[in-house]
Amino acid sequence: MRALNEKFMKNTPINHQTVSRAITSSGITDLGYASIREIVKLVNVLIKETGVEFIRMEMGVPGLPSAEVGIKAEIEALRKGVASVYPDIEGLPEMKVEAARFVKNFLDVEVQPDCCVPTGGAMMGGMASFMVANRNDRTKEGTLFIDPGFPVQKTQTRILGQDYRSFDVYNYRGEKMGPKLESILQCGKVSTILYSNPNNPSWICLTEDELRTIGTLARKYDAIIIEDLAYFGMDFRENYSVPGMPPFQPTVAKYCDDYILLISSSKIFSYAGQRIGLLVMSDHLYNRRYPDLLRYYSTDIFGRAMIFGALYALSSGVTHSAQYGFTAILKAVNDGLYNFVDNTRVYGEKAARMKEMFLTNGFKIVYDMDIDRPVADGFYFTISYPGMSGGELLKELLAYGIGAITLNITGSERHEGLRACVSQIRKKQLPLLEERLKLFRDNNPVKE
Fold it and tell me: Above 60 in pLDDT, residue 293?
């Protein structure tokens, strides 16, 4: 009891009892497994109750202005009256052409415009992918998630009543990946394999050899790969910014026949509010016939089931004006008039400064290495503090006006860790973060 009372008496920006009451009133039973949106709501409650300025690292919200070329094109389209007309569910023809150009220019992969379809962000693209790709063979059961990953994608499979398997890839990098993957795939029950690259939350980046391994085994065991490219080109150790010139964003598309690429406009173009992204199918997958799709759709052709089955049922198309804005952005990028990689590079610069602050004050980087080199500085990084679980660390940081999410909900095996997102942290807040981390270290000395 004495130790507990001393904890509550600490000089912190927010009283620990206030934090505890807010957690209880928010209906969160286990902070270590609270969802991203639950933590967002909790932080909002604490801000309202206390007036304390928060360092908000819990949600991946873009922190940069939207691409102006898209805004102008969207306004022009609205003025021309597109708001009163249903969009074509397949997408604007000019957008599909620019999407195929984008894939060629920055991935060095050829796809037909017909295979590029707009979705309400990568979130909708993932849902549609599960609705079709996990229903193409009645003998298979669902998705293999190469974790850690975006928690909501597992939620989508649960909503659809689909099974999934997963493993934390960090201990199976390089030559270890093949045997681990095959040990799961050889059961013959996996319909799809999903991962993000760069990875949310760890920010590790799969190598060409690892992608080749994934692609080769997917072909061997007839699994469809869903590659989440929400952070396209944001491994800032390489320069992926010049259209049509190497180096290109690494992709499994070079090593397999059946793949889906999820490309979001939210982070790379800071266009999150318009909820538009791309679902790109390989030509081979688009035209492939799966008789078992007829259990759910009027066609057994994969691409048609995706567009006229799943996407039609989900939304009847993506917001008309947003498609015009997205088309303009893609064209500007393809023509070399808008360098989206240089625009987002500030995230990496901010991450480097923030990591240094955490390390100086006794924290550790959980996922710190990309096989044989330090993990890149980017949109996310992962932290832990000696002697605390992820849930304990998050609760303690909330008293210092710092928000994050635990790694527990990402499929990570590192339950001591938190994910930190850099996007919402303003440069003028960095001194405040440093001040609070110093106070945290003083109040929570590490036992030698």
Answer: yes
